[in-house]
């Protein structure tokens, strides 16, 4: 602290007097008070007897200050590796028996949906989604992703109808999960036409059936408009796998 004060005050002292060499004598009486002479200005004062000022830090040192405020917390460290899995728990108790089933109950599943907007192929495959519902029993057909989800295992009938776009290709598949089952295809033509495809599929619980538009290798499209529904997708259960279904 004191040292800093000295360094700061010296340049102003030097500035008060003319250049060092000619004024050597007239400056002598301006010799700073003892203590602040610890560091003679650069050049010209080397003849002044060396005064060593020793600053005893122990004296300068004040009392211990108050404890500062707590700092803001540091950033969170990296996540550690997962721990090892714990021991297997004990076996639970047997649950209660369910209510007796209804032997006469018949399960149904049926949907019929349509689309009023045309669709062109993109760079990647896309599901044909629908905007019009004719029938959708228990919402087995998901209008958001365009996929029928099997809630009742069994044999189903599916059918898709589209209208082609003149001078464009039409290229769709009926999909069972991620596997193509049947195609709807039409070459580019100056005459647009209705095209359809049907198939029966054996479905298990949670299997999905949907219509996929092929990706744009050659531009392909299906046509529809606001006035009429040109595109439909239909499906229904013919026979459940389990007796009583
Ligand atoms: C500095 O000052 C303290 C307190 O007056 C004294 O005890 C100590 O001996 C001094 N240290 C030196 C090196 O003079
Ligand atoms: C179809 O996908 C569903 C959901 O991922 C899965 O549960 C089912 O086993 C799949 N079925 C077939 C035939 O791959």
UniProtKB/TrEMBL annotation:
Limits of the C1q domain: 104-244
Compartment annotation: Secreted, Extracellular space, Extracellular matrix
Coarse class of the protein's main subcellular location: secreted
Keyword Signal: yes
Cell cycle among keywords: no
Keyword entries, A-Z: Collagen, Extracellular matrix, Secreted, Signal
Signal peptide: 1-16
Cellular-component GO terms for this entry: collagen trimer
Compositional bias per record (Low complexity), positions renumbered to this chain: 81-94
Region (Disordered): 62-100
Gene3D superfamilies: 2.60.120.40
Positions with biased composition (Basic and acidic residues): 62-72
Protein name: C1q domain-containing protein
């Amino acid at each position: 602290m004191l040292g800093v004060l000295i360094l700061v005050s010296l340049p102003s002292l030097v500035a008060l007097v003319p250049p060092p060499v000619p004024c050597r004598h007239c400056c002598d009486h301006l010799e700073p008070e003892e203590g602040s002479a610890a560091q003679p200005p650069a050049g010209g004062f080397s003849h002044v007897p060396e005064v060593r000022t020793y600053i005893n830090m122990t004296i300068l040192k004040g009392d211990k200050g108050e404890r500062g405020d707590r700092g803001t917390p540091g950033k969170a460290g990296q996540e550690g590796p997962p721990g090892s899995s714990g021991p297997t728990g004990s076996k639970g108790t047997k649950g209660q028996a369910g209510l007796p089933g209804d032997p006469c109950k018949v399960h149904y599943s049926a949907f019929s949906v349509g689309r009023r907007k045309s669709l062109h192929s993109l760079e990647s495959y896309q599901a044909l989604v629908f905007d019009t519902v004719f029938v959708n029993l228990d919402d087995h057909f998901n209008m958001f992703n365009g996929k029928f989800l099997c809630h009742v295992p069994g044999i189903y009938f599916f059918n898709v109808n589209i209208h082609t776009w003149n001078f464009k290709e039409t290229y769709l598949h009926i999909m069972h999960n991620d596997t193509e089952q049947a195609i709807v295809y039409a070459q580019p033509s100056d005459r647009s036409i209705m095209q359809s495809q049907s198939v029966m599929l054996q479905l298990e619980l949670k299997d999905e059936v949907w219509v996929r538009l092929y990706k744009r290798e050659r531009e392909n499209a299906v046509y529809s408009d606001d006035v009429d529904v040109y595109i439909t997708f239909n499906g229904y259960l013919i026979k459940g796998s389990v007796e009583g279904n």
